[in-house]
Every structure is written in structure tokens, then in C-alpha cells.
Amino acid sequence: MTDNKKIEFTDSSTDFSDGSAPKQTKLGEKAWYVVHTVATHENKVANNLKKRIESMGLQDLIFRIIVAETEVPVLKDGLPTGKTRMKNLYPSYVYIEMIMTDEAWYVVRNTPGVTGFVGSSGKGTKPFPVKREEIEPVLKRMGMVDDSMYDRYSENDMAKVIRGPLEGTEGRILSISRDTGAVQLETIFFGRTTKVEVDFSEIERI
After folding, report:
1. The whole model's pTM is what?
2. Are strands 192-199 and 93-99 parallel, antiparallel or unpaired?
């Protein structure tokens, strides 16, 4: 994947290598998973999966489906043209929030355009979910913030701005407001200590 970040996985797997047909199992916990798709087919996969969820009534098993795209300026000779385009931050990957039951697992991996789950060894082995700290930057780059994300951050933690005008800036967290999402960072600009304010969705703990 991009950003030179290695996705890590937790939990155990279930083997269906005997070829038995998938059956409904006891519901587990909601978690994020990553599927690999045919190149440039990320949005087709997402749309196909959404249709299957609706037609098969799987809304209680498969929730958010994300193609991590962001709007970027179109440049010509290094200069902005005033036009924009959508850039896929993680080509050939789709992020799915789901409860990993046999039924949900079977439906997703058999959606047209899906070539497999990341974190599965194949041979009928279920994939591992993505750790929360690994999926958080993806969600934040999409401007999506869950209240539980705040629990991982405290004053004096070091953080990096991952999007917005101050992207790449690192600093120490002075304060965080759950109500407004405002984060005060202490950073260094031109050799001087400076306080800046960014949105919580724009930072990642380092």
C-alpha cells in the first residue's frame, strides 16, 4: 500500500479449506477489513457491494464501504489550472467495516472485481481485521472521525498533521476539544516555538 505503512492484523482465522459451503455463524465484533480489487475498479467494487448488501439484506453485517479518494488540483507545467480531479490514496484497495461472519465473508469475496482480502493466506482462510490505529489515518484522510478515536490521544502526545494547509507539521498536543474537534499543537516554525490550531481529523499520533 502507499504511504510506506505496513498494515498489521490481529485475531485468529477460520479455515474452510474442506470446501464446505459457508453458513451463518454467531455474530462477532464490528471491525475494518481491506479487500484487494482489480486495478481501477475500486468504485465499481464499492457500488457492486452496496447493491448486494441492499438486495440480500446484509445491513446488519456490512456497514461502511470506503474508497479512499481525495480531491487534488490539476497542474500544468507545475502550476494549478483551477481544475481538480479525484486521486485514489490507496489504489486497488477498498476498506469495509463489517462483522466477519461466514455469510458476510462469502458475499464480499465473491463480489465482482474483488481479488481477495488483505490479511488472508487464501485456501479458505478468513482474513484478520485491521488494527484501529492502522485504519484511523485512512478515515481521517476522508474527514471521518469516530468519537472513540479521541481515546487514543492525550495532552503532551506528539502528533503529525496528515492533511490540510499544515500537512507534514509535527508538534506536541497542548489541548483537544471533543466538542469542537479543535486541537492546539505546539510546533517549531523557523526555529521558534509556535502554537497552531488544527482539526482533530487532520492529525495522527506519532
Report:
1. 0.76
2. unpaired
* CA–CA gap between residue 186 and residue 178 (Å, rounded): 18
Q: Where are the domains of the chain?
A: 30-141, 147-205
Rg (CA), the chain: 20
Q: How far apart are CA 12 and CA 14, in angstroms?
A: 7
Tens-place pLDDT, residues 108-141: 999 999 999 998 776 778 888 999 888 998 999 8
What is 147-205's CATH number?
2.30.30.30
Q: Given strand 182-189, what is the order of strands in its sheet?
A: 192-199, 182-189, 170-176, 158-161, 203-205
Question: Phi then psi for 159, rounded to 5 degrees?
Answer: -140, 160
In the 8-state DSSP scheme, what is residue 14?
A: -
CATH 3.30.70.940 fits 30-141, yes or no: yes
